[in-house]
Design a protein that fits this description.
Strand order of the largest sheet: 1-4-5-8-7-6
CATH class of one domain: Mainly Beta
Helix content: 10-25%
Distance between the termini: 78 Å
Strand content: 25-35%
Structural class: alpha+beta
CATH topology of one domain: Thrombin, subunit H
CATH architecture of one domain: Beta Barrel
Number of strands: 29
Oligomer: single chain
Radius of gyration: 34 Å
Largest sheet: 6 strands, antiparallel, barrel
Number of helices: 13
């Protein structure tokens, strides 16, 4: 190094070193010498100047939500309701109480706002008129509107407000609680209408847009993607809807509003959210528009909705149940019970059958079956593909019209006795003839004397532990059969379990219902 510094003081040496350094720098910048430097230089060369907009990648087209809202927004309406006028009350207090009037006027301690009722709901005569708000959309230019049944249920007055601020008093043509769809009618002409799409073409990850009135803010637009399709929800009356799940922000007031695809077509009606706070938390559900259109047509034509039924109770098939029934993978709807003298019973369908398809339409999840059967006109014959005895077979069933469910068997409970636990972790015992003759708890469906419901034909679970407890078997359950083999005594139960392999399917009666519970033994 000393030599270079010393020699660099001489002109010839300085020129020689400068030329060599320049050659070195030029060579280092060539592509075949350093991919890292080349990539870095390319990045710097392509980087936009500070403050410049970043263009989307080639071939990527961002959704034009603004045009969609401009075109379809006028067909979306605000729906407000007023219920029947009722006397304003104080929770837990009789109107005859001497302090009733004091608390009604000045508020219950700890009540929101320091008043007995919500602001604006009461009057000087001590009455209130509950109301609410939701959304809807126009489906015909002469004034038919779709919304949610829960938006207008029990409403005495319904007002529809358009985006141009015109207001109309609406008539409730009809509503259907199982699908949560209602049809309204306003007297108007030449109204803007939405275009109906095909929800069957929706794919998870696809962009969708909701327009509605969250918290009363008319014509608010929120966007997101389809999270899943054909989503069944537990509980409630939603057995006849396979929902579209999205991450579109939906809040109170959005109910009944349309869900659009990017073609500007309505593919669903925003209906429900899953929330721990009462507000949007990233999961919302929409009713597929084809379901709503079918309900609309029936309500307009005859004022009610007819649904098909075949008379079975069903449950989901999980991996353990699939293994115990010899099915290749979890799919289909497992028949947990067959209605006596119902269509399925007459056709030969049995408890423990797994329905794999209906009229050629595959059933992956059990919640798909009620939707398919419910949409079939009563009196029509449906062909079911059924898994029974580890083989497929075809069964034709004539669909009947769905009626309200009849009375169910009352719950039972018996004193605990001992028995040895089997490898599933169950302690069971026989039911004595005396217990059977006495029956279970009183059945309100019987006469006024309160006849007792008969006990099920099976063994009583005294204690559930280990694998059985983890699978969901509970004390007080009755085990009716094991892997399709009826068991009426502890001896029969043990023999069936021993022959059942590692995984067994227990048919259990609990209270009013029968369910299959898969248990994987140790």
């Amino acid at each position: 190094m000393h030599w270079v510094l010393t020699m660099s003081r001489r002109p010839f040496v300085r020129r020689t070193l400068a030329a060599a350094f320049a050659l070195l720098v030029f060579t280092a910048c060539q592509p075949n010498n350093s991919n890292a430097e080349s990539a870095a230089l390319a990045t710097l060369a392509q980087a936009p100047a500070a403050g410049a907009a970043v263009a989307p990648a080639p071939g990527v087209v961002l959704p034009d939500f603004a045009s969609l809202v401009q075109q379809q927004g006028p067909a979306v309406v605000n729906v407000s309701t007023k219920g029947k006028r009722m006397r304003a009350g104080v929770p837990g207090m009789s109107p005859d109480d001497p302090f009733f009037e004091f608390f009604r006027r000045f508020g219950v301690p700890g009540a929101p706002g320091g008043r007995g009722g919500a602001p604006g709901e009461g009057d000087d005569e001590g009455t209130r008129r509950p109301g609410g708000e939701g959304s809807g959309f126009i489906v015909s230019n002469d004034g038919y509107i779709l919304t949610n049944a829960h938006v207008v249920d029990e409403a005495e007055e319904v007002t529809v407000r358009l985006t141009d601020r015109r207001e109309f008093t609406a008539r409730i043509v009809g509503l259907d609680k199982p699908t949560d769809v209602a049809v309204l009618k306003i007297e108007a002409k030449d109204l803007p209408v939405v275009r109906i799409g095909n929800p069957a073409k929706l794919r998870p990850g696809e962009w969708v847009l909701a327009i509605g009135s969250p918290f009363g803010f008319d014509n608010s637009a929120t966007a997101g993607i389809v999270s899943a399709t054909a989503r069944g929800l537990p509980g409630g009356d939603s057995n006849y809807v396979n929902f579209i799940q999205t991450d579109v922000a939906v809040n109170p007031g959005n109910s009944g509003g349309p869900l659009f695809n990017l073609a500007g077509e309505v593919v669903g009606i925003n209906s429900q959210i899953y929330s721990r706070s009462g507000g949007y938390m990233g999961i919302s559900f929409a009713i597929p528009i084809d379901v709503a259109v079918s309900v609309r047509d029936q309500l307009i034509a005859k004022g009610r909705v007819s649904r098909g039924k075949i008379g079975v109770s069903i449950q989901q098939v999980d991996a353990t149940l699939a293994e115990s029934f010899g099915l290749d993978r979890p799919r289909g709807a497992l028949v947990g019970g067959v209605e006596e003298d119902g269509p399925a019973s007459k056709a030969g369908l049995r408890q423990g059958d797994i329905i794999l398809s209906a009229n050629g339409r595959a059933i992956e999840r059990s919640e798909e079956l009620p939707t398919i059967i419910g949409a079939i006109r009563p009196g029509t014959e449906v062909t079911l593909e059924v898994w029974r005895d580890r083989a497929k077979r075809s069964i034709k069933v004539r669909v009947a019209e769905l009626e309200p469910p009849g009375p169910t068997v009352a719950d039972t409970g018996k004193p605990e006795q001992t028995s040895s636990a089997d490898r599933l972790g169950l302690v069971v015992r026989d039911v004595s003839p005396e217990e059977r003759s006495r029956g279970g708890s009183r059945d309100p469906s019987q006469d006024q004397r309160g006849a007792r419901a008969p006990l099920p034909e099976g063994v009583l679970v005294v204690r559930a532990q280990g694998a059985a407890r983890d699978a969901g078997v509970q004390r007080g359950d009755f085990v009716l059969n094991v892997n399709g083999r009826p068991v009426k005594t502890v001896k029969e139960f043990r023999e069936a379990v021993e022959k059942g392999g590692k995984a067994v399917a227990l048919l259990v009666q609990r209270g009013n219902s029968q369910i299959f519970i898969p248990v994987r033994g140790e």
